[in-house]
Amino acid sequence: MKTYLVGGAVRDKLLQRPVHEQDWVVVGATEAEMLALGFRPVGKDFPVFLHPETGDEHALARTERKSGHGYGGFTVYASPDVTLEQDLQRRDLTVNAMAETEDGEIIDPYGGQSDLHARLLRHVSPAFAEDPLRILRVARFAARYQPLGFSVAPETMTLMRGMVDAGEVEHLVAERVWKEVSRALLEPRPDVFIEVLRECGALAVLLPEVDRLFGVPQPPQHHPEVDTGDHVLRALRQAPAELPVRFAVLVHDLGKGITPEEVLPSHRGHESAGLPLVKAVCERLRVPNPIKSLALGVCEYHLHCHKAFELRPQTIMKLLRALDGLRNPQKYEQFLLSCEADARGRLGMEDRDYPQVNYLRAARDAAAAVSPQALMDAGFEGAELGKALDRARIEAIAALKDCYRA
Predict the structure, then answer these.
(1) Is the CB of residue 48 less than 8 Å from the CB of residue 58?
(2) What is the pLDDT of residues 234-248, one digit of tens each?
(3) pTM listed for this prediction
């Protein structure tokens, strides 16, 4: 019985990056032996145990054989006779197929260290093609490690295209897709995730609403980059690493993908046109409701933010109500951050000042500062109290607008 540190912990140690989780593989052991040592079983599909003291995951060495479609279509064989090399061979990328002994020796049968130096994400074996979820994982790793110079190996990209053409991606379940998308959107370069999926053809299968944005022109006076898909990628690069914000930025312009060709490059009404598309994406991927709600709000109202100084106080009050800005200031702030990323996600405008967000923050604070108790003390109640509260809030926003004009 021998235990080895494997996977991402080995990779990140060699890259001199922080290691957040440690996974171990155990060779030459049985389930009964692991239980006798006090390990707690947690695996459903294959034998995985938690260490009785550290809580680290320890999996018995195993092999996998394709037996169906999709992520779960595998027959797993775990036995004391499975070697470390056999276990590593079933992994996705060479940089994830290394192990470390208790003495610190690196075991690297598939060239992971060489690919780390070459900054390549390369598949371990043709068995990569048996699991379509690996396409999303590769795209996610590309989004994480692009700042270090990593890219997808050409032969791996070719293999992923073949998997897409074979229809394997269509068998992925929504929960697994959303898990990978949500993790990838929080990586340092979420735009690279989208680019890799597009290059291999998976984007057209998983997010066709996003895929069709590429090649759609916009007015160059507002969008010097012209291409709508390019704009979305630029906006993703500007967005802070908050999942609701980055997802909202990803889908905020979906309406531009269905603009009739005869009116291009104009996209009048794309905000309302995009709402059914955003809903469709969220329902298909089973996106959590708070994230869906923000995405719909950004899609419908991002132009309101861009035109904030042109809006009447009454319209700003309607915007606050539509976004539940008084009761949910976090959602309102995420709306503003999404719109700011949209505004700066344009060629040459990345560092341009965007005072609209400060104005709309101040407007929200001014409206929130109006005291219902003061109005009740003045004799207002029932429906009249609600109307008086609205009037007072609109007046507070109007006074603020005068200050900004001054």
Answers:
(1) yes
(2) 999 999 999 999 999
(3) 0.91
